[in-house]
Amino acid sequence: MRNPHNRMIDGMPSHRCARCRLIQVDCLCGLIPQISTRTRVVVVLHEREDRKTSNTGRLAARCLPNSDVVIRGGFDHATPVPSWTHHGDPVLLFPHPDARPLAFWKDSPRPVTLIVPDGTWRQAQRVRRRVLGLGTVPCAFVSREAPSEYRLRHTRDPRRLSTLEAIAEALWILEGPAGSDVREALLGIFQVMVERSMRVRYPEARSRSDTSGVVPGLAASDGRVTPDPTASGDVNLGIEDARQNPRAVRR
Known about the structure:
- The protein is an alpha/beta fold.
- It has a domain at 35-201.
- The chain has five helices and eight strands.
- The protein has helices at residues 57-63, 121-125, 127-130, 163-174, 179-201; strands spanning 8-9, 12-13, 40-46, 67-72, 89-93, 100-101, 112-118, 139-141.
- The strands form two sheets. The chain has a six-stranded parallel beta sheet with strand order 4-3-7-5-8-6. Strands 1-2 form a two-stranded antiparallel ribbon.
- Helix 4 (163-174) packs antiparallel against helix 5.
- The longest helix is centred in the C-terminal third of the chain and has 23 residues, at 179-201.
- It starts with 7 loop residues before the first strand and ends in a 50-residue tail after the last helix.
- 36% of the residues are buried.
C-alpha cells in the first residue's frame, strides 16, 4: 500500500515544506532572516539541484532580498537570463585559473553583482560557457581557514564550502563594516538547517553535544568527522586537481 504521507504537492512530498524542503515539524521558514546588502547575489542553480533537500543556494537567496535565482540545465525549468550588468559590476564566484581574490572588488565604486553557480563541480564549471553573457565576466575566489560545517554531503577535500557558506564569506568581504553581521546571520540559519536535516537522517542525534556515540557525519569527540556512507556524492561546487589549483573553493 502506498504511504499517504508520500503524496506530492508542488513536486515535493507532502510531509516536507515546499519552500525550505525540511519536514513540516522542522520547517525553518519562520526563522529565515531578511538581510539587506549592497551586493546583489544571483544564484545560478542547476535544475537537478533545485529539488534536493540538502541544497543551500536557495536558502541563501531567501535570506537576501537583493538576490535572484536563475535556473539552468532544463528546457522545461530554465528561467530567463537577466542582464548581468544592470545592478552593478558582475563577478562570477568560481575558481577559474584566471580568478582573482574577491577582495579585489571590495572597494568597487559600483555595487557588485555576485554570480554564484550552484550544482555539482561538473555542472558548475560549465556555467561560464553555457549561460549567456557569462563568458567574459571576471571570476573570483574566496578562502577560509576553518573547514566547512556542511555535514549533509561528504567531500574528499576539507577546503570545500557549501554554496551558502561561500556566499557568507563573499559578503563578509564585499559588505564592508556590515559584512561581519551579514556573515553571522547567514551562517546562523545555515547551522539550523544542517542540524534539523541531520536530526531527520539520524533521529538518535538530537544535538551535536550528544557524546553517547559517534553518529555518521557528526563531529567525534576528537574533532574528526566520520564519513556518511549514505550521503549524496554530489557537492555544490568541487575543486580542480589541488596541485593545479591550491585555493580554497566552494562545494
